[in-house]
Amino acid sequence: EVFPMLSEARYAELRDDIASHGQRMPITLCPDGRLLDGRNRMRACDELGVAPRTEVYGGDPYDFVVGSFDEASKKCPRVGWAQMAATLEITSRAWKMLMEKRRKVGG
Predict the structure, then answer these.
(1) What is the DSSP string of 15-55?
(2) Cα 92 to Cα 75: distance, rounded to the nearest angstrom
(3) Among 2, 19, 44, 92, which is least packed by CB within 10 angstroms?
(4) d(CA 85, CA 95)
């Protein structure tokens, strides 16, 4: 649970959007069925009685977390990496992988 749940207002918007337009993004699972991404979508689908659309990520779950963290940081460029990591309580392994990735690509 690296990323926080949506606020109740944002969650209500997501639930209403799924009710009106269907689930647009699949929920990502590990091969063993653990949830990697999509807790809010899963909750909304459960509440709406909608069968959730899922996909299985076959790679290392930490790679997925690092990629998600990297994408989130691009959407919040004014937030520093260290502050974001502390706020989201990212695991030290994922943090180290992210920093190594950034060093390799010159970021």
Answers:
(1) HHHHHHH---SPEEE-TTS-EEE-HHHHHHHHHHTPPPPEE
(2) 22
(3) 92
(4) 7
d(CA 57, CA 35): 10
Query: Whole-angstrom Cα distance, residue 44 to residue 87?
Result: 25
Q: Are 28 and 37 in contact (CB under 8 A)?
A: yes
Tokens of 18: 């799924």
- Kind and range of the H or E run holding 71: helix 61-75
Compute CA distances 19 → 1, 87, 104, whole Å.
25, 31, 42
Q: DSSP secondary-structure letter at 56?
A: E
58-88: per-residue pLDDT in tens? 877 767 766 665 665 555 555 555 555 555 5
Place of tokens 């653990």: 34
Retrieve residue 42's tokens: 């899963």
